[in-house]
Every structure is written in structure tokens, then in C-alpha cells.
Amino acid sequence: MDANPPDPFAVLAALGVSDARSAEPVLGGADALIWRVERGAEAYALRVFRPDQAEASEREVAAMAAAAAGGVAAPRVHAAGAWDARPALLLSWCPGRPLLHELRAHPWDAWRLGVRFGRTQAAIHTVPVPPGLRGHPVPWAAWAGPDEALATRLLAVPPRAEALLHLDYHPMNVLVERGRVTAVLDWANARPGDPRADLARTASILRFGPLGAGLPDAGARAARPALIAGWRHGYRRVTGPIGGMAPFFAWAGAVMERDLSPRLGRPDLPWLTPELLARVRAWTTEWRTRVA
């Protein structure tokens, strides 16, 4: 959360945009502030990063351009620049609503939504890695922290063909409308690597994320496994069977622990409890034991 958010109209002016009618803040991720901007009859998303994220914003632009060129729906960049040393992007406002919201409104469609979710992730993994993402300063495997045993085990796994990894692919970053995926958002973590890392990261989020919030208990219990089953089915219909996942699950669990532990107690994350973190640790330990 930004204690002193910038004036969006000042940011727009720095990008050369002076005809915006309105700029309304919307819920963003951990990496950026986001406003919905209206200019004439068109809507846009203004995304403002931290000052230390200049290179990250450039990589995100490269990833979105590569995804769009490869047939994956992604926001288009209309303007890029900086305000007060903070990188900023003006992106197309994509139609639809987050898949998570669609799931909560229509939990009986969980399997169908999961199939589309999985097919889209498979499509991402066919996109050629753009030059702007090569030589990433933090390879995907390093996300788990200084864990030499796990790193050694991952290096010993016969690699699959290098793919474009989203690494934050979850139901809040995928928009749907009328039964189709209309956009994949938030490419800040994208980099090249083994597609099984991206699958394991998504699997951990689907397993432990707050998918069922707002649903009756019975609906929540049914929606999560149905979504996960549909996701697996949709992905495998495109790629065929995926093997050798165990060390990647151990990696994804370690990444989730490292990511969530500092956020424990935040009032905007009521689902993040010590009990949930304990479940994540147990899951990670189980997979580490299997690949020890």
C-alpha cells in the first residue's frame, strides 16, 4: 500500500496525456498502483510502479508485447514513461472481469472456467521468449531463496523446452467475459524457464488462495477442486501429460512461504492466517520429502 499515492493527472501529463476526463483508483497488486482512466469514449489503465522498478516495467512491456504477438490476450501499451522517477504505463482497459469474481458469481461453472484458464496458460507457454526477458537478473529458481539442496535437485531434472513463464498466473489476473478469456494481466514476474515452474506456482495459489471467499461453505468446497480439475484438463488437452512435477511443487511451496510470511497480519489480507501458513509449510515439506 502506498501512503502517499501520486496524482494520476500529474502522471498522465508526464506521459503526454492531457485530455483525461477522470481517473479512478482500482485495486492493484503488490507491485503497482492502478487507476481507470477515461479519455473521450475510451478507457485505459494507468499503472504506476515504485522508483526501483524501471527495469521491471520494461520487462513487463516486453512480455505483454510477446504474449499479444503470440495470440494471448494482453493489455496494449499506449504510453510509457516516468513521473518523479516512478515508471508508469498507460495500458488498454481490457473487457471482462476477473475469473475469480466470475467463479464467485457462478460457482457451478468452476470446471468450465478452469478449462479455459488452463488452455490459456498452455498458450502462454508456446510464446517465444522475447529478447527483453533474456538475462533476467533473478532466474525463476532463485525465488525459493538460498536453498542449495532444492536448487541442485531442480538442476538435475531433465529440462523441458524453454517457455515464457507468467509466474503470477491466478484467477485475479485473468479476465473473462461471455465464457472466454479476454486478457491476462500483471506480467511483472515474467521470465524464461521451465513451464513446470509456472504450473507449480499456479497450483500453489489455487490450493491455498482465497478462492471461496463470499461463497457458502458447500459452494466453496466444491468450486475449488472443480476449478483445479478443469485447469489441469484444459492445460493437458493442449500439451499432453506433464511429468516430473514433484521438485517444482517443493519450489513453489518455498516461494509461497517466502512471499506470504512478511505479509502476515495485513488488514487487507484477512485470509492470510498463521494456520494457512502452517498448511503451506506442511505441503512444502511433504514435496521436499518426496524429492529428497
TrEMBL record:
InterPro entries, alphabetized: AGP_Transferase, Aminoglycoside_PTrfase, Kinase-like_dom_sf
Aminoglycoside phosphotransferase domain segment(s): 23-224
Protein name: Aminoglycoside phosphotransferase domain-containing protein
